[in-house]
Design goal:
ADP-ribosylglycohydrolase fold; 0% strand
Length: 271
């Protein structure tokens, strides 16, 4: 999950701006977390409470808990800082929030904890869908979350990159069977799951390090913080997060957000 946070911070300066050079500095003084980090931590916090309470399936109660947690985390911080989309903002501010058919990549950028908290593909994909559907109940929004969470779990279980590529290609996105260079021919900046998730996965599959993964993801342009968050969440499993990037991320997190991350780390030590 730290990989998603670091990716968000690294990509934060380049969202819908000029693509940086291939060897750009990953962390600058102005680099900071966005809504991607906040929503990632909100989902993790809600899931841990659900599991501590004995939840075994995503259901109406999990929908209530996750909805409350996401809305509370968002309200505890300035909405403008988060950079939320207009439809998500309306959902946050609604007196009676309901899913709104989104297939945006918000469901996939916030799901990384699921890939660590569950140990089978069936469980992982079921809970990934549960974290998505409270807002992103479009099939593409659910598939995006499932693809990222499943990739994390497979990497945790020691699957090869080819095995991850094959699974994601057969289950979710045919285009993952190519290379990132091949796929970039069809890439256009977007915030949809189908237009970003496969490219984020390819950024990991084609890279040889955590840093290279983020450079590939940001180098796509467009929604760079989310692309890097998704790619980084998978790359963390194989490569780990370099110490200087870990430290830069932790320094930028408010104490209450760091507490969620610490709680998550303590939990996964027992998994």
């Amino acid at each position: 999950m730290l990989g998603a946070i670091v990716g968000d911070i690294v990509g934060s300066l380049y969202e819908y701006k000029d693509v940086p050079p291939a060897d750009f500095e990953l962390i600058e003084p102005r680099s900071d977390w966005t809504d991607d980090t906040l929503m990632t931590l909100a989902v993790a916090d809600g899931l841990m409470d659900l599991l501590d309470g004995g939840a075994t399936e995503p259901d109406d109660m999990s929908d209530v808990v996750l909805t409350e947690r996401i809305r509370r985390f968002a309200m505890d911080y300035d909405l403008p800082r988060g950079g939320y989309g207009s439809r998500f903002t309306r959902w946050l501010l609604s007196r009676d929030p309901h899913p709104y058919g989104s297939y945006g990549n918000g469901s996939a950028m916030r799901v990384s904890s699921v890939g660590w908290l569950f140990d089978t593909l069936e469980e992982t994909e079921r809970w990934a869908a549960g974290t998505a559907r409270i807002t992103h109940d479009h099939p593409a929004g659910i598939a995006g979350a499932q693809a990222i969470a499943a990739s994390i779990l497979l990497a945790r279980q020691g699957a090869s990159r080819q095995e991850i590529r094959d699974y994601v290609s057969e289950r979710f996105y045919d285009m993952v069977s190519g290379t990132l260079a091949d796929a970039k021919v069809t890439y256009a900046p977007t915030t949809s799951c189908q237009g970003t998730v496969p490219f984020a996965i390819l950024a990991y599959l084609d890279a040889t390090s955590f840093k290279e993964t983020l450079r590939y993801a940001v180098g796509l342009g467009g929604d760079t913080d989310t692309l890097a968050a998704m790619a980084g969440s998978i790359a963390e499993v194989e490569f780990g997060v370099p110490d200087y990037l870990r430290q830069a991320a932790l320094e930028r997190l408010e104490p209450e957000l760091r507490e969620v991350l610490d709680r998550f780390w303590e939990r996964i030590k027992t998994i």
